[in-house]
Amino acid sequence: MSGWQPDVLGDGYEQRTLELGPDPDGEGEVAAVVVRRTPREADEVRGAVLYVHGFTDYFFQTDLADFFAAHGLAFLAVDLRKSGRARREGQTAHYTTDLARHDEELDAALAVVVEEHPGLPVVVLAHSTGGLITPLWLDRRRRRLGDVGPVAGLVLNSPWFDLQGTDLQRGPVTQALRLLSKVRPLQELTAGLSIYGPSLHTSGTGEWDFDPAMKPLEGCPVTWGWLNAVRRGHARLHRGLDVGVPSLVLRSRRSDFSSAYSETSDRADIVLDVEHMSRWAGCLGGEVEVAVLDDARHDVFLSLPTPRAAAYDRVGRWLREHGLGEGSFTG
């Protein structure tokens, strides 16, 4: 396929821009960007992975790509509209008033995967908000087309399945969002990720060298319009989906919402409530497994070495159990 250009990740990675046309939310022309780990001579490709990032995020995890390559799966990722590589000047980061609009770039990105690797099974891997967006997309795709082929499996890394807080707190917040999203959709709230970003990045206490321009350490601002779209997505999930394929949900054993950094910040999910991930996992439909990982971070693949290795090991076993990948990886 033509159109591949060098990527910001350097040698071994290329990107392709998918133009999507005018933004329904009025922020100019929108696009998505597909990134691929370029094939190596030693690769034995028996399938492929399509990776979808979360909020305040973009694809940069080359170890993740190497892991799947070691299991015989070509790796491609998509930076969604207004996110990471795809965000254009004047656009509000990650902003949409309807998560279903992401179906367009997910369908287009999947088409790229199929053209690059025709006839091979595809595993969709998604993190956090991406872990909400992708099940909704697969459920709509199944209802529209009758099945979700060539997608053969779904792996969700700490998916955002519900709003933090108690049931009593969530109800009034959701009602308020319905009104505020109509009258002030672009009004910003604080992101509340001031501990998480520095705990990951090399400029703070972490080991990961990502671009803070695309993944701000303080988090991207949350808007009323976007958060209302997320709550509508939660409501649809809670009514029950059928993603059409086996699913694996990865989560930390515990959450910690302390406002100050401590050693616990590196050994817990400090962004989302992990109990929600287990509570609502059954709403994906079909065969669902929840893997609880001791000491894992919100992005389990950015955890400290021991829980990170456990996360990779569990995914590797799940792939083998479902005939979707073989091999080993040390990273």
UniProtKB/TrEMBL annotation:
Keyword Cell inner membrane: no
Keyword set, alphabetical order: Hydrolase
Domain of life (superkingdom): Bacteria
Entry-linked SUPFAM superfamilies: alpha/beta-Hydrolases (SSF53474)
Keyword Hydrolase part of the UniProt annotation: yes
Domain Serine aminopeptidase S33: 44-214
Recorded GO MF terms: hydrolase activity
PANTHER family reported for this sequence: PHOSPHOLIPASE-RELATED (PTHR11614)
Protein name as it appears in the record: Alpha-beta hydrolase superfamily lysophospholipase
Organism: Nocardioides aurantiacus
Lineage: Bacteria, Bacillati, Actinomycetota, Actinomycetes, Propionibacteriales
